Amino acid sequence: xxxxxxxxxxxxxxxxxxxxxxxxxxxxxxxxxxxxxxxxxxxxxxxxxxxxxxxxxxxxxxxxxxxxxxxxxxxxxxxxxxxxxxxxxxxxxxxxxxxxxxxxxxxxxxxxxxxxxxxxxxxxxxxxxxxxxxxxxxxxxxxxxxxxxxxxxxxxxxxxxxxxxxxxxxxxxxxxxxxxxxxxxxxxxxxxxxxxxxxxxxxxxxxxxxxxx
Length: 213
Hints:
With about 210 residues, this protein is of the alpha/beta class. Helix content is about 40%, strand content about 25%. A seven-stranded mixed beta sheet has the order 3-2-1-4-5-7-6.
């Protein structure tokens, strides 16, 4: 029964995703994405590309773009968006913890609202580090665990129902700490708030981490 529910809700979630986030994207999140992605360059992989919300935001400095997305319902919608893209793009259906690429094959890796959902964020970050060239960068924009203890306790209390509703999204993950514990070196982090989002997913962290040369 769980698998039937997951498959059914996953299909519905993918269908509603863009509409559900429209107010947040229009309220400022899209501009945050644009500013973050402006720092991408070279061969770039967008990990957990979803329905393609980052398409059209990558700069000319990105010479090759690869999108990875494990969810079949999201990948189906992402595939439909590719013909209108402004560049040639490779799409692979693969989990963040198992990217089908050689070591040291990308200059930039991108995670935007992804590390909250991957089953094993530590493994996903290790995999991002593996496919990055020495000196390559992970750029990220993620909703994260609140730095306010009272708010964080509410995130803990509501994590299970939110995860079921959000198709695997964990509202209380300390993603910045996970990046610091990974093979990557945290280079820059900015704290903010997801515009027009419910309180348990409002705390935001964005920035970059580099793979030591």
